[in-house]
Amino acid sequence: MKQALSKYLPEGEVLEAGIHGIGLESEIRQVFRKCICDGDKIMPNEHGITLEVSKSKYSKCDVYIGISANYLILAECDIYKHLYEFHENPDTTGVTVREVDHCIRLEDIGNCFALKEIRSCVVKNVWMGAVNCTVTLNNGSVIKLQMPKRGGVGNGMPHHAEYRDRILAVLGAMN
Prior knowledge:
Layout: H1 2-6, E1 17-38, E2 41-44, E3 49-57, E4 61-67, E5 71-76, E6 83-88, E7 97-99, E8 104-105, E9 112-114, E10 118-125, E11 131-137, E12 142-147, H2 160-172
Parallel strand pairs: 1-7
Antiparallel strand pairs: 1-2, 1-3, 1-4, 1-12, 2-8, 3-6, 4-5, 5-9, 10-11, 11-12
């Protein structure tokens, strides 16, 4: 889990907590400048366009959920399919636009979110002690996650309850 989450952790950040959870649904929007889309990659191009990439998934999947001092990090436990949509020269009002300086694989989009970009997080208790979180970002992206009360069978994952509480405290403070 730590290895999967560390892949998306920005330089200088330290993973403070990580758990196994369930991705319920996601609609992620990111905008890139000076780029071209080439198959399953976004490539830098000085004369390229501004491109909005929407990455969506509407079915459950296993994910690792992590938190650092400044970021929420998600890493899928397996290879899952997503719906991708592309819009050239979108309206960028109020949206963070990222300038592309290296090749970005589409599967690597939507795995790391600055906590300052989170507009709200609605936390609801559901069955058997699990918690559902609906995270809404400033750009309109929505991520729905479920965090089980226990991680794993038997005694469960070490520190799961502690790390889950730490993640929920950070996300819950976003309201």
